[in-house]
Amino acid sequence: MQKGKSSIEFKHPPRIIGKASVVGKKEGEGPLGNLFDQVEQDPMFGTASWEEAESQLQKRAAEAAIQNAGLTPADMRYMLAGDLLGQLIATSFGVMELEIPLFGLYGACSTMGESMTLGSILVDGGYADRVLSLASSHFASAEKQFRFPLEYGNQRPLSASWTVTGCGAVVLSKNGDGPRITGVTTGKIVDMGLKDSMNMGACMAPAAADTICQHFQDFGRMPDDYDRIITGDLGIVGKQILEEFLDGKGIDIRRQHMDCGIEIFSASTQDTHAGGSGCGCSASVLCAYVLPQMMKGEWKRVLFVPTGALLSTVSFNEGQSVPGIAHAVVIEA
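Above: the chain's sequence. Below: its structure in token form.
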């Protein structure tokens, strides 16, 4: 099952038998708006705080994905979930009522890749028959924690990305129909010394390049072996840096590459600057756009590479740099 230095090729590939995406109003106004399962017009999701709103995101996406699979929460062996907030409070308060044994995960915006990786290992290894993998983010809760409260009205540089209000969830099973997860490559932390928390794309792009290179080496593959190579939330700035990094390695992914942070918002009509980011960015685009394309037979094999910036308010205020990480998941129709 081990493949190369950092990868796993599954002998019994888990199936994605259920999926769901829940997003906010701004995401619903973007190019993929009509593809999401639920678009909530109220940014508070009927709650009293931004953090509670994100918890509602998770609960709704989890319930919808399980229902889409024709199952109940009691049918889930484990849940693997995470968010961007301190101590994963969006997750712990959001999915509590489902009463599913939980692994709480933090990989910053790469969390969906981490969740699907570990979920696939559990299913392929026989430790679970069905697991639920999900990740969420909320624009206002992330701004409040990492940057400035919305009431401050601060200006954002053009390199800044817009944290997606959204959640994506998938049900992985050892049996059933649906796309298969045939392999994974686990990324390592890459730190180029960048300290600009308003330029997440630049901070994460080197990690994405490292993971993609390692994946090709471990599996003996090249870009043409994939219909799409899908990064999580590098945005316009990070996409260019990633492609230039890979050029230096003799790898050109331009024909196959797309970025969820670019796809989810319209650069011409929505003021999001570099594009989208957040745990919910790649997770919701995966569930609303990527998986349906595979189910329709448009794409046969994709490499899904969510990217994360591993900073906190403590590390940033202490003058630390912003390390990046990326996890790759091979999904085949």
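The chain has a mean pLDDT of 93.
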